[in-house]
């Protein structure tokens, strides 16, 4: 039977080549539009409205105009919401008891899980780990909390009250004068890092579901738990942060 479509393969090849060229052109054109928009936006004042953006930034279609206007409205809403949140954030003379309980539970959870993992390694190492934690807590309450605004008050971690019970008040200027570097955080990091490394070794030597679950919860509390406590419940409501906090200055230091 005679082939009725002898040119079909050639046509298909040409169609594929045309499609590739068309997509290549569209992608480069879109990239060019985005690039031009980006550089033009660098010259637009932050208080510019959606209409002002459209007047200084020529767009190629009605769809792009609508997209740009919606984007600008969302950006303006985000800025307004951020400013509103900054205005409504309050600081505490004494933190609510609920905040103290939550922050204490996270800390005790990390300590407890670390002790459990180290106990699986050996009883002596577990007690040494616990002694290490007690030394860190004593150093904090004895030498740092006495100079803090919350000495004798209820801070977000409850340690201001403890420091006021056992140690005399220090000088507030000493707290603000102190400078912190990243190396100063190493002792606190080791509280989670030591049992984490020990737990990994235990899993390699002899797998245990209890150790695996303890490791997983330890990681969650150390990362997400601490981030929630410090980022949401304590630091942004701290009075000492307004007066001057070395830790806050370290974490917010401009690169």
Give an account of the 3D structure.
This protein has 255 residues and is mostly helical. It is built from eleven helices and no strands. Helix 2 packs across helix 3, helix 4 packs antiparallel against helix 5 and helix 8 (186-205) packs antiparallel against helix 9 (209-234). The longest helix is centred in the N-terminal third of the chain and has 34 residues, at 8-41. The radius of gyration is 30 Å and the shape is globular. The termini are far apart. The model is unreliable at 1-16 and 22-59 (pLDDT under 50).
Briefly, what is this?
The chain has 255 residues and is mostly helical. It has helices at residues 8-41, 50-56, 62-88, 97-121, 123-144, 159-166, 172-177, 186-205, 209-234, 239-243, 246-251.
Number of DSSP E strands:
0
Q: What is the overall silhouette? A: globular
The proportion of strand residues reads under 5%
Report the major sheet: none
Mean pLDDT: 78
The helix fraction, in percent, is over 70%
Distance between the termini: 77 Å
Uncertain segments are 1-16, 22-59
Which structural category do the helix and sheet elements fall into?
Answer: mainly alpha
What is Rg?
30 Å
Specify the number of helices. 11
The SSE order reads HHHHHHHHHHH
């Amino acid at each position: 039977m005679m082939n009725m479509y002898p040119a079909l393969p050639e046509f298909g090849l040409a169609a594929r080549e045309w499609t590739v060229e068309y997509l290549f052109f569209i992608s480069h054109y879109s990239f060019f539009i985005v690039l031009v928009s980006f550089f033009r936006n660098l010259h637009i004042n932050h208080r510019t409205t959606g209409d002002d953006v459209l007047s200084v930034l020529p767009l190629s279609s009605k769809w792009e105009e609508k997209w740009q206007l919606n984007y600008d409205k969302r950006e303006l809403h985000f800025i307004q919401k951020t400013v509103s949140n900054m205005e409504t954030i309050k600081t505490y003379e004494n933190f609510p008891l609920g905040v103290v309980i939550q922050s204490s539970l996270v800390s005790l959870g990390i300590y407890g899980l670390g002790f459990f993992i180290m106990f699986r390694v050996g009883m002596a190492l577990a007690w040494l780990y616990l002694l290490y934690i007690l030394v860190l807590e004593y150093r904090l309450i004895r030498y740092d909390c006495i100079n803090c605004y919350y000495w004798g008050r209820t801070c977000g971690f409850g340690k201001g009250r403890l420091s006021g019970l056992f140690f005399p008040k220090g000088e507030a200027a000493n707290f603000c004068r102190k400078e912190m570097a990243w190396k100063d955080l190493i002792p606190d990091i080791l509280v989670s890092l030591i049992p984490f490394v020990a737990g990994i070794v235990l899993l390699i030597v002899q797998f245990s579901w209890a150790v695996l679950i303890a490791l997983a919860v330890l990681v969650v509390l150390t990362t997400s738990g601490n981030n929630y406590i410090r980022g949401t419940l304590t630091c942004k409501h701290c009075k000492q942060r307004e007066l001057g906090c070395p830790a806050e200055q370290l974490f917010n230091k401009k690169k």
